[in-house]
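Open question from group meeting: does this chain pack into something compact, or does most of it stay loose? Before anyone orders reagents, we agreed to write out a predicted structure and look at it together. Recording both the input and the output here so the notebook holds the full record.
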Amino acid sequence: MHTTPLHLQAFNPQPFINRRDELIKKISAAGGGVAIIPTAAETLRNGDAHHDFRPASSFYYLTGFCEPEAVLVLSVTASKTQSILFCREKNIEREIWDGYRYGPEAAQKVFAMDACHAIDQLNQILPTLLNHQTRIFAPLAQNTPLDAIITQALNQSRAATRSGATAPTQWHDIDALIHEARLVKDATETAWLHAAGRISAQGHVRAMQACRAGLRETDLEAEILYSFAKDGAQHAAYSSIVAAGANACVLHYRAGHSVLNDGDLCLIDAGAEYGFYAGDITRTFPVKGRFSTAQKAVYEVVLTAQNAAIAATRAGANFMAPHDAALEVLVDGMLDLKLLDKQQVGTREDVIASGAYREFYMHRTSHWIGLDVHDVGAYSEGQTESQQPIWRTLQSGMVLTIEPGLYIRPAKHIPEQYWNIGIRIEDDAIVTDSGCELTTRDVPVTVADIEHLMKG
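Structure tokens returned:
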């Protein structure tokens, strides 16, 4: 079954119209052509049971349309532009089993398309749209069924050249244009991201309040998912990480059946999806509600690193500025806590240059977030002559996570009180001209606030 039909919601097509118009301008600037953007395919889970359907992010970004078996076509010439949706026909019998379908007539009106046709007419209509065009804009090597449809249409268009028509001779990656547009969020998107952040935060609060020794990781995951659903999320934005004790040192650990023990920390990385936009929060807290001296020392290093990264996040800074700011603090912490021996590794600058810090911090501090939890868009703007990346300049409206961490596995050269401490702190930040706005701080982050919430 797919999501609640938009005819039962207050759907506003204007943001989607605006996005199509911006993409049409880019296609026009490139000389015009036909853009073909498919939604996702329905996927079998097993037997005849499907996974819940979710539209392809870029398709949804341009249409707001949530049904499977759909394709958006943008036809752009010097004299005329058209937004054309291909979707399933009305079928009352299938609606009894699977739920409401718009059908072409209603879809054209609701989603403000210039035209709308049944999906089984795509093979017939697409060749005529390609005639007298020179460029096709479509995903490259991502959709085998669509590739076959485009190939067939292109061959028919080529055959028509004997009657005086012209056929496209260029294929451009439409994803490159759409992904660039998706990097900077509009007001509608930031509203969804705020909502996803609030719902995600409440799930984390519930998990902290429910936590006690003897529960399993999956028990806390159930609390989080219940909270997400209760507060209106469509789904979890990704598979939740709930990691007790040593499991927190495994970066992509999934919630399992490990028991929460007094004296352990619990790391939860979980986010809700709302309006198809993702929240992404990580918090680490003590199972018994109070940090040990060693746990608190490591936690304060990571929190200070996150605050330094937040302060470095603003329009005009480059994408790696938050990471660089966090890394300096983390390395100082590694040296102060004697995780790294100054006699062996040298100064902070030496540690960063050698990469010795990667024993305890092996990932970047940020990634884009939006319709996808690891959202699309280039992180660099090219390379220097020495093939070093030129990191992207942050712009107001870009959205990224800020998530430093320390992961300390047992080893002879590491003080034993720090063994199996894994801590990550993550929030979502909307870049502004003066800094950034965090959308996920409705869940405590300081040691005092976490302990106060869990005590209450």
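Observations to bring back to the group:
The mean pLDDT is 95.
The radius of gyration is 25 Å.
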